[in-house]
């Protein structure tokens, strides 16, 4: 039974390919266009794409060219060829800037970059391009029904960039590169000032500077523990209601005690 089904599928595929080959060889371009549209409607995008591509130079400048260009661009998109789709969506807007479809094509161009945005650990160039193009779309089309979705996508992309930057800062900390970690977490706060994780980033700045001070040579410790104290005071001023305030105060007290011990040692040494 299984062998029969396999043979049946092969036969059907062969029949489909044979029929397409006949369409492809036809010199009746109206017929070929009708078949391309039928393949497109049936989601057989690979066949539709090939026929549209053949018809492209023949229909250029005709009243049918816009619809062909539109479907051709979407064939690439539905086949997940996002790089080609992006170029075609962009090209459509350049060729038909006043078309009623131009706004949709602009949005889809931005959306192809979103579809190419990789997982957090990888290069985020496409994520940043998504943000730029989606914001440009919103600015250019302030009344568009797509703006709500565009804004949501921008937020998702910014969260991804924030997480990538956070992972990088955490890596510095885990590698015991504490000064670099402190700077990275501080930059994270500055780059995402509205983040709901700002207090945790600030605490990581404090923790990083504390570890940096603790590992420093004796001559540098007082200065570096003072930096921790300054960061703790900033935390208190900026996040007075934070649930992490107790932890920040713990680092404050530890740093004060370390400076006190350093000064006592200095007094003993000079006595």
Automatic annotation (TrEMBL):
Transmembrane segments: none
Alphabetical keyword list: Cell outer membrane, Membrane, Signal
The Outer membrane lipoprotein BamD-like domain, residue ranges: 36-223
Domain of life assignment: Bacteria
Coiled coil location: none
A Pfam family per the record: YfiO
InterPro entries per UniProt: BamD (IPR017689), BamD-like (IPR039565), TPR-like_helical_dom_sf (IPR011990)
Name of the protein in its database record: Outer membrane lipoprotein BamD-like domain-containing protein
Organism per entry: Flavihumibacter stibioxidans
């Amino acid at each position: 039974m299984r062998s029969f089904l396999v043979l049946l599928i092969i036969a059907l595929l062969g029949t489909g390919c044979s029929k397409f080959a006949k369409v492809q060889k036809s010199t009746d371009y109206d017929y070929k266009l009708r078949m391309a549209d039928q393949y497109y409607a049936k989601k057989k995008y690979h066949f539709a794409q090939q026929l549209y591509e053949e018809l492209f130079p023949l229909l250029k400048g005709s009243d049918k060219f816009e619809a062909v260009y539109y479907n051709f661009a979407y064939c690439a998109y539905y086949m997940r060829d996002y790089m080609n789709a992006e170029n075609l969506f962009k090209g459509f807007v350049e060729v038909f800037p006043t078309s009623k479809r131009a706004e949709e094509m602009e949005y889809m161009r931005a959306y192809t970059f979103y579809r190419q945005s990789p997982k957090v650990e990888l290069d985020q160039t496409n994520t940043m391009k998504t943000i730029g193009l989606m914001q440009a779309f919103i600015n250019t089309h302030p009344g568009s029904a797509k703006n709500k979705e565009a804004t949501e996508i921008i937020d998702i992309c910014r969260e991804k960039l924030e997480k990538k930057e956070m992972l990088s800062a955490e890596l510095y900390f885990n590698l015991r590169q504490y000064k670099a970690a402190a700077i990275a977490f501080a930059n994270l706060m500055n780059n995402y000032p509205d983040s709901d994780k700002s207090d945790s980033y600030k605490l990581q700045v404090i923790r990083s500077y504390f570890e940096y001070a603790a590992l420093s040579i004796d001559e540098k410790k007082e200065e570096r523990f003072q930096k921790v104290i300054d960061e703790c005071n900033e935390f208190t001023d900026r996040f007075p209601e934070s649930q992490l305030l107790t932890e920040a105060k713990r680092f404050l007290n530890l740093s004060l005690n370390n400076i006190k011990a350093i000064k006592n040692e200095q007094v003993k040494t000079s006595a």
